[in-house]
Design a protein that fits this description.
It is a single chain. With about 240 residues, the protein is an alpha/beta fold. The chain has a single domain, classed as Queuine tRNA-ribosyltransferase-like (TIM Barrel). The chain has a 3-stranded antiparallel sheet with strand order 1-2-3. The chain starts with a strand and ends in a 5-residue tail after the last helix.
């Protein structure tokens, strides 16, 4: 459960236990509930059945401090329904499934995150695993509270260097210890986002990132075009 201290747009600067959001988790230490892994592209009837099975497993779990998993494939209504039912079972931190696919589908990403955020309690924290460093600022701006180091480790295993602006393949000989550098870049990004939130300049940071990455630019333009009401709801007017 998050205690919100302030907003910078929809982004939430607050505390989860003694940690300031956005928080970076070690994915190996994450304790999530059992759930039914669901492919992203699947028939809705099957995805709906898997959501119900995931909720049944959540009901049987006695430790409500574990993280609930928001299943529902590409279907926004199923995602929202899953998140609401997990809340009713007492889970206060919810994790999005299929985040790799969501990052490749900007319209789905925006709709699923924003509709979920708008239809659950403000005190429920949202966790987006496997995020690249480049996308973390805009995900935080949309209302994500928690990230992890899984993408940094994955890219290092493939000899890819992940910076704030790019992912360099093994053809670029920039550093000898890719994992160490990936972790430094990731940790710096989280700190950078926090400081921008404190100074009410996170929107500036998301725009800067968008200018360096075509995919982020698409995400930013879709966000501004289709979700102005959501953005303005939490934006201070001067």
């Amino acid at each position: 459960m998050i205690k919100i201290n302030s907003h910078d747009g929809p982004a939430r600067l607050g505390k989860i236990e003694d940690q300031t959001t956005p928080i970076l988790y070690d994915y190996k230490e994450v304790k999530k509930i059992e759930n039914i892994a669901t492919p992203y592209k699947i028939q809705k009837e099957i995805a709906e059945e898997y959501v119900e099975q995931t909720i049944d497993l959540a009901k049987k779990e006695t430790n409500k401090d574990k993280i609930g998993v928001i299943q529902g494939a590409q279907y926004t209504d199923l995602r929202v329904n899953c998140a609401q039912k997990l809340e009713k079972e007492g889970y206060t931190t919810l994790m999005f499934a299929n985040t790799d696919e969501l990052q490749r589908n900007p319209q789905d990403l925006l709709e699923i995150i924003i509709e979920t955020r708008e239809n659950i309690k403000p005190t429920t924290s949202l966790y987006f695993p496997f995020a690249t460093t480049q996308i973390i600022p805009i995900l935080t701006y949309l209302g994500i509270d928690i990230f992890d180091n899984s993408r940094a480790i994955y890219e290092a295993k493939n000899n890819h260097l992940m910076t704030n602006n790019n992912i360099y393949t093994e053809e670029y000989n920039i550093t000898e210890n890719i994992l160490e550098e990936n972790m430094k870049q990731l940790e710096f990004t989280i700190k950078e986002v926090r400081e921008n939130m404190k100074n009410k300049t996170l929107r500036n940071l998301t725009e800067q990132r968008a200018t360096t990455n075509p995919e982020l630019m698409t995400l930013h333009r879709l966000m501004d075009k289709n979700y102005q009401k959501y953005l303005l709801k939490y934006t201070q007017l001067y």
